Amino acid sequence: MVSIDPVIVGTSAQILIVSIALAIAVIALVGFVKVRSWRLLSLAIAFALLACSMAAFPLAGLGWSYWSLYDAGSDMLFLSEYPYILDIASFTQMAAFLFIVVVYLDELRGRILEFSRAQLDLLAASIAVVVVLASYGFLFYGNELGHPIFPFLSMLTSLVLTVVIIFFLYAYFRQNKNASTLIGMTGFLLILSFEAYLALSYYAPLWSTFHNLTEGWSSAIMVTLSLLGYVAFLIAIVRVKVVHDRD
Amino acid sequence: MTGIRQRQRSKCRIFADIIKVLESGHGESIKVTHLLHSANVPYDRLTAYLAQMEKSGLVSRSSDGDASSFIVTDKGRRYLVEFRKLEEFGSVFGVEI
């Protein structure tokens, strides 16, 4: 009987995520070059950052001893001894989603927020400073207390993604219930499920039940769910192209 | 309390709106005064945008006495097609470009 390694499944999913995120970044960048929309440039930067952060996981796996990245007897990723590159990757991923939030704030500016451009820049800079200080506080002092940074980053990323989804709901109802927006929102919900799992599996003991039930497959399953989120983006992009060409 | 304020359009969207108005002329040049009302842009900003669009080759100017009028170029039409595609791409991420 052929046994499938959950690590191989998880790594393959991460490599596919990198490819899709890079493709989206390239489309947004080409769009920026064509119409000079700064929001498209921001999306391009956000997805390039997501691709870089996701690439760090399989690259770290290839670069160092593959199994040393995993806890013995556990499929939980990076719970104990793990290289700093993965902290940076988690941080980069959160920064990417924050970038998207700033794009939304810019869009809401003048619509329902009484912000000037300068006030928005100040708000974005303040959020960035607070997040950087909090993250590095955890990185330097949390590790000393035996508290790894990645669950904290996953929790922050989950919160940022929740804000993204709230903005999506707003966009969905504003854009006359555009189906593409709904598919895109589903993509972010699936990515949120992975991040929330990483955070909850550390902070909520209940999640160890899920880990036990899945017999070492929980991380691979959740990374695959995250991959499905990116696939949802691809489906939505292909769909808008088909609808556009038909019109 | 004024309720929901009018949205602030991005520059590329204003360019697209101006090109849409010029396209509605079906090859006839459109005067700046008509663009002012149809594209809903203040005069000083409109003239600055039109100068920029002319420099980029999106529109071409034809002077009739003191009044300037504009016509959309092929490059301008291609810009509008690309803008519409990218507008739909942005909608996937809930973003209005």
Care to give the gist of this entry?
The complex is a heterodimer of chains A (247) and B (97). Helices cover 79% and strands 0% of the residues of chain A. Chain A has 247 residues and is an all-alpha fold.
Task: Please provide a written account of the structure.
- The complex is a heterodimer of chains A (247) and B (97).
- Chain A has 247 residues and is mainly alpha-helical.
- Chain A has helices spanning 6-35, 38-63, 84-108, 117-142, 149-174, 179-203, 207-214, 218-246.
- The termini of chain A are far apart.
- Chain B has 97 residues and is an alpha+beta fold.
- In chain B, 55% of the residues lie in helices and 14% in strands.
- Chain B has four helices and three strands.
- Chain B has a three-stranded antiparallel beta sheet with strand order 1-3-2.
- In chain B, β2 (59-64) and β3 form a beta hairpin.
- The longest helix of chain B is centred in the C-terminal third of the chain and has 19 residues, at 74-92.
- Chain B starts with 10 loop residues before the first helix and ends in a 5-residue tail after the last helix.
- Mean pLDDT of chain B is 85; it is low at 1-5.
- Chain A binds chain B through residues 27-28, 31, 34-40, 43, 100, 103-104, 107, 109-112, 114, 167-168, 170-172, 175, 178, 180-181, 183-185, 233, 236-237, 240-241, 243-244, and chain B through 4-8, 10-12, 15-16, 79, 82-86, 88-97.
Summarize the main sheet of chain B: 3 strands, antiparallel
What does the radius of gyration of chain A come to? Answer: 19 Å
Give the percentage of residues in beta strands of chain A: under 5%
Supply the number of helical segments of chain A.
8
Label the structural class of chain B. Answer: alpha+beta
Count of alpha/pi helices of chain B: 4
Poorly predicted regions of chain A are 65-81
Strand fraction band of chain B? 5-15%
Q: Ends of chain B: how far apart?
A: 28 Å
* Strands of chain A, count: 0
Distance between the termini of chain A: 51 Å
Across the major sheet of chain B, the strand order is 1-3-2
Radius of gyration of chain B: 14 Å
What is the makeup of the main sheet of chain A?
A: none
